[in-house]
Specification:
Blueprint lengths: L4 H10 L21 E4 L1 H7 L3 H11 L6 E7 L2 E6 L1 H15 L13 E5 L11 H19 L3 E8 L4 H12 L5 H17 L1 H15 L3 H25 L5 E4 L8 H11 L3 E3 L5 E4 L12 E5 L7 H14 L4 E7 L3 H13 L6 E5 L2 E3 L14 H19 L5 H21 L7 E3 L1 H6 L5 H18 L16 H11 L1 H11 L3 H20 L8 H25 L8
Parallel strand pairs: 4-5, 4-10, 5-6, 10-11, 12-13
Antiparallel strand pairs: 1-3, 2-3, 7-8, 8-9
Helix pairs in contact: 4-17, 6-7, 6-8, 6-9, 7-8, 8-9, 11-12, 13-14, 16-19, 16-20, 17-19, 17-20, 18-19, 19-20
The structure holds one RNA strand of 75 nucleotides.
RNA sequence: GCCCCGAUAGUUCAGUGGAUAGAACGGCCGCCUCCUAAGCGGCAAACACAAGUUCGAUUCUUGUUCGGGGCACCA
């Protein structure tokens, strides 16, 4: 869908020296100037003339088709006024024809993606900071699928290691451990290990036993980590996060493929056993320039493996799936680790996944701190938001059943958190304001849902189906209508950028802008009580198309748009 | 100390090598006989600082300041 395609040729015809890449189309600062602006800077440079002079020449020489009503130079720009109804009809036709595929370039057709995300340590109920990984990962999964890829979403379950060992130890001292008590037990276990050396040693011993295959130890680890995973997944499911495969870290202990990696490292003189019998990689032998982080420990002196050692095997496992795109979503705290891992794998002839980093979520009054209880648990947020939304729904949608009302409230809650987090560029910290996120006002997910509900209300009241093909009588003359159509037309570009940038933030911002543009239209342009029947149909079609595009964008963000709210 | 990210209205976020830097929240003033006021209109309000590249820099470079993350036996 490129509404400006028909504008390129006449310009190229008038200036044969130019290529399509010398031309771009933007929106003029206000609609009085025109509907489309062509900046002349690039073209002028190529033709070695001044941009304003070229704009004048272009206006005189270009022979535009019927879609252009007028072309006027304004400084270095050529402003075009379009036959809005004609161009708008083409835009609408594309949206209504392509439906839930509108916006997809289908670049992923026939291609496979492996994405790993969330992978929260099984030690606590997730807070919104951890959940940023899940939201980013889940939305990327949806974006890849939207662009035509076949995607497998993986969740790496860190079901072993020293800290889990300590947790298992504490758990065995308790009568019973519930999911809610896990974090507390985890914190206590780690604290105790600090001053109680015997306790810490028992933890290491237990871990080693488990790694060596002791069935009782393995059963203990399994029970504790299953409890945690189950609790975590229940919360993540509320968010709408979906996973296809759960990979357990314990599966990758002593993986035979690691021998080959070690051999490759030895070959390069990058592997050594230190004075305490630890197996260590010297990354400086692999080209690691900086002094810090040049050592990477694979095995403890007692023979139990480190996280990175298992991760090497896991990463090779994912590589072996042979996907065209292999990505993993990581907190920025994992940057150096991922680089180290990648360096080791490369030395052994393997490729690491493409990392997608995100920064932490911080609270208004500073960093989150699990220890100080300064965290916003995802489940707490969802509970509060859902309860608040339920009150509104109860008064505004009284005719719906309690179950339906509850469903809507939950959808609003999920949209509030997903939108608040996803709309921020991943490489920036998100400052999370509980109060703002619960207000559902302004730049929020619920605002977009509300716009959808208004559209649905209009379509419901119209009662009949809307013709899916805009006819000759289609009209879109007003500024508000044109603004809406041109916004709709830009969705494919937004979705493509999101794919290449591996970020759904632009989609979130776009959805908000489209919803806002629709609201202006909603106030300026009566639909059901339009002046003429053809105007009514045209506007109904615009509503239909906007709902479609909003739905497409929201579904990438993992947000549902309720019928009413 | 060293390395990696970031810095835009009071606050939370957009944005761009070129037309008047957009929203929202908060503040003030208005709007429900009108397709849902979770809404709309109006007013006040910003490119951290300093050099450099450029016809033109908020955008690119470097330095400074501040914030986030990291720097071997955690995962």
């Amino acid at each position: 869908m490129d509404p400006y395609k028909t504008l390129t040729d006449p310009l190229l015809c008038a200036f044969p020296e130019l290529a399509a890449s010398d031309l771009s189309f933007t929106t003029p600062p206000n609609q009085a100037l025109g509907d489309v602006a062509v900046p002349m800077f690039l073209a002028a440079r190529k033709l070695k003339c001044a941009p304003p002079a070229l704009a004048v020449q272009a206006a005189e020489r270009a022979q535009f088709g019927p879609e252009v009503v007028s072309a006027s130079p304004a400084g270095p720009y050529l402003n075009l006024k379009l036959d809005r109804s004609r161009v708008g009809r083409d835009i609408l036709e594309a949206v209504l024809r392509e439906g839930d595929r509108f916006g997809s370039t289908n670049v992923g057709a026939g291609k496979r993606v492996v994405i790993e995300h969330t992978s929260i340590n099984p030690n606590a109920s997730p807070h919104v900071g951890r959940a940023r990984n899940a939201m980013i990962g889940d939305s990327l999964t949806r974006l890849f699928r939207f662009q035509g890829h076949e995607v497998e979403a993986h969740y790496y379950v860190n079901d072993m290691g020293r800290q889990i060992g300590l947790l298992v130890l504490i758990a065995s001292e308790l009568e019973e451990l519930s999911f809610d008590q896990v974090l507390d037990a985890y914190v206590r276990a780690n604290d105790r290990a600090k001053d109680d050396e015997a306790f810490a040693q028992r933890g290491y011993d237990l871990l080693l036993k488990m790694e060596e295959g002791d069935p009782a130890a393995q059963e203990q680890f399994r029970a504790v980590t299953d409890l945690c995973l189950k609790g975590q997944l229940a919360v993540l499911a509320r968010l709408g996060a979906q996973y296809d495969v759960f990979d357990r870290e314990s599966k990758y202990v002593r993986d035979p493929r690691l021998d080959a990696v070690c051999a490759a490292l030895r070959e390069k003189d990058a592997l050594f056993t230190d004075e305490e019998e630890r197996l260590v990689v010297d990354l400086s032998k692999l080209g690691h320039a900086v002094e810090e982080g040049r050592y990477f420990v694979l095995m403890r002196g007692n023979g139990s493996s480190m996280y990175g050692y298992r991760d090497l095997a896991y990463t090779m496992d994912k590589e072996a799936l042979g996907a065209d795109i292999n990505v993993m979503v990581l907190g920025e705290d994992h940057k150096m680790y991922a680089q180290q891992l990648s360096m080791i794998l490369e030395a052994a002839g393997h490729a690491a996944p493409e990392p997608i980093y995100y920064s932490y979520i911080i609270l208004k009054d500073g960093k989150m701190s699990t220890r100080q209880g300064k965290v916003v648990l995802l489940s707490d947020f969802l509970d509060q938001a859902s309860a608040l939304a339920a009150e509104r729904v109860a008064s505004q949608c009284a005719s719906l059943s309690p179950d339906e009302q509850l469903l809507i409230a939950e959808q609003v809650a999920v949209s509030a958190i997903r939108f608040a987090v996803l709309r921020v560029n991943p490489n920036k910290n998100v400052t999370f304001d509980m109060e703002a996120a619960l207000s559902f006002q302004g730049d929020t997910g619920p605002y977009i849902q509300y716009s959808c509900a208004r559209i649905r209300s209009i379509l419901r009241k119209h009662g009949e189906s809307v013709p899916a093909i805009p006819g000759e009588s289609f009209e879109a003359g007003t500024d508000a209508e044109w603004a809406l159509l041109s916004k709709v037309a830009s969705f494919p570009e937004v979705a493509s950028a999101a794919f290449s940038q591996r970020s759904c933030a632009g989609i979130a911002v776009y959805a908000l802008e489209l919803a806002r543009t629709f609201t202006t239209f909603y106030h300026d342009c009566p639909v059901l009580s339009a002046d003429t029947p053809s105007q009514r149909v045209s506007r109904l079609q615009m509503c239909q198309a906007v709902l479609q595009v909003l739905s497409n964008a929201l579904s990438i963000l993992g947000i549902e748009a309720p019928e009413q709210m």
